[in-house]
Write a structure and sequence with these properties.
The structure is a homodimer.
Chain A lengths: L1 E5 L4 H6 L7 E6 L10 E4 L7 H5 L6 E4 L5 H6 L1 H22 L6 E7 L22 H18 L4 E7 L1 E2 L12 H11 L4 E3 L6 E5 L1 H13 L10 E3 L3 E4 H12 L1 H4 L2 E3 L3 H8 L8 H5 L8 H13 L6
Parallel strand pairs in A: 1-2, 1-4, 2-3, 4-5, 5-6, 6-10, 7-9, 8-12
Antiparallel strand pairs in A: 9-11
Helix pairs in contact in A: 4-5, 6-8, 8-12
């Protein structure tokens, strides 16, 4: 199968690529993605008119659209966020539409739980409305609407998946305001101090990178007739407080590791996080076969296995 | 007060203008709006870059953004719908943003119940999600998201109001698929036959032009702090079936008038209408003081008073 991955240099894109072996894959990003032999890497700016058309030259049957400016940066740079997250997405969707010879690829779009804004019910159901409290969330919500409309009109066969916050993110921190959720696990496991900018009572919604890749693969194969007109889904996840995250870390890695977390309140991050979802009731996604991690402990063990190359007990 | 009305040549715009007397009003549309002496009429295409900037030259403190390609036309002409309803709105919002010297007008944006798509609960609550089943509804839902984000960032002070279907629309039919809801009242009252393209059991959500203008005026004056971050509201209305509409017409105007309605099913319109909202529970708007018509009978009487110049009994 011919597959195009947009945003292939990002963390999820990099984790996804090895799962696409055996296909004709084009991996695109604004910086060079690392690719295995046989995968074609393309570097360009999707938000420049004409670039999306070039990416479609080989008529991929499956397109993963993972590219985005993350929440912190989209909030700091209004124009850049709208240019990449809204215009870039629309240029891609329009480029597909304009081919117009019956070409109708599956498009898997990564949306975000940032489309939701507080106040929330105890668990956000599948028909709860979108009142994002960040420009990033606004741009993702608009992407979802476009995906639905373009799919309804038959231009492509889209599915949008709202990823939980990915935890534990490997590598360096990015500019997402949610970065600390990973940092307080990743840094201590690497023997380094980590800053916790919020209170331990803060509850949030998580999925491991491995679960996220599983969602993408499942979304690429699902029978879209089961989705009807409602093509955007909240993915399942694990709802835990920061305190529960720390307790899980202590259980998996011991007191000394957990003691590397230093609480240093950051009012800016606290305010952003206050508006974020804490818990979901993602019934449709579960019925459609999407599967989350079992627990936050499992999320930590996955990180140790995948990033430290150690199979952790039990 | 300096007021800009965009979409002033439309039916609602024309009804709104006389209520703005005593203010410095600029009335804009793509065709020349009829205006009273003292009102400045401006004709241009809002979707052409640079035009929105010109409209803001006098720094209006209040902007009504009513301009839109209606549902039927936005569905028939994909590019035109997105260009006017999405790009035009965004160009306006960005032009306001770019002034950037503390200018922060109130922006009243007319959204639509077309942001909702079936299946529905018995009455659509204030936190029900947006799954539009038309491109028009998609464009309005995106406009709402932009309005919220631009307001949150302090670029302007926006409020979006989701108008029920306006009934009875005076004048000629437009290209809205909802046109028949008005046609089956307006045409018979004018002694003409009217086509009913759907079954009498179809339920829908209505407001008179007079109620709609009342919503706009109220939205222009409301204390926006009461809205919080959720700046888009479903307006109150009257939920009736087509059969109840006809019964009300019979009561107000007699059997002979009601007998001018001819049932001629149109599968295309039936399918569009099937996806439309039927009933709402618009609690927030009611709490904020928005007031609908009392009944469909009153809606008919308002039409007779305002369009035929006759005060109808009782």
């Amino acid at each position: 199968m011919k597959i195009l991955v947009i945003g292939a240099a990002g963390m999820i894109g990099q984790k996804l690529l090895p799962h696409l072996k055996g296909n004709a894959v084009v991996a695109h990003d604004v910086v060079a993605p690392q690719v295995l032999p046989g995968v074609k890497a393309v570097v360009s700016d999707l938000s420049v008119p004409g670039e999306a058309e070039k990416l479609l030259y080989h008529r991929p049957e499956l397109i993963f659209h993972l590219a985005a400016i993350v929440s912190g940066e989209a909030e700091a740079d209004f124009d850049k966020g709208y240019r990449i997250n809204l215009d870039g997405t629309r240029l891609l969707f329009d480029a597909i539409r304009r081919i117009g010879d019956g070409y109708r690829p599956r498009v898997v779009f990564t949306s975000s739980i940032a489309v939701f804004g507080a106040p929330f019910p105890p668990a956000i159901g599948d028909d709860f409305f979108h009142t994002p409290l960040t420009s990033y969330g606004t741009q993702k919500a608009i992407g979802e609407l476009l995906l639905s409309d373009y799919s309804r009109r038959g231009f492509f066969d889209g599915i949008g998946i709202r990823l939980p916050t990915i935890c534990v993110r490997p590598g360096k921190p990015n500019r997402a305001a949610s970065g600390f959720f990973s940092g307080i696990i990743r840094e201590p496991l690497a023997g380094q101090e980590a800053i916790l900018p919020v209170e331990e009572g803060v509850r949030h919604w998580h999925a491991s990178p491995r679960a996220a890749v599983g969602f993408l693969i499942h979304a690429s194969k699902i029978n879209s007739e089961l989705l009807g007109a409602r093509r955007n889904l909240s993915m399942p996840g694990v709802s835990v407080t920061v305190g529960e995250q720390i307790a899980a870390l202590r259980k998996v890695a011991g007191d000394k590791v957990a003691a590397l977390i230093r609480h240093k309140p950051d009012p800016v991050i606290m305010k952003i996080v206050e508006g974020w979802p804490r818990n979901f009731d993602p019934r449709r996604a579960l019925e459609l076969g999407f599967r989350a991690d079992d627990s936050f402990e499992q999320i930590i063990r996955i990180h140790i296995e995948d990033e430290h190359g150690v199979r952790s007990s039990p």
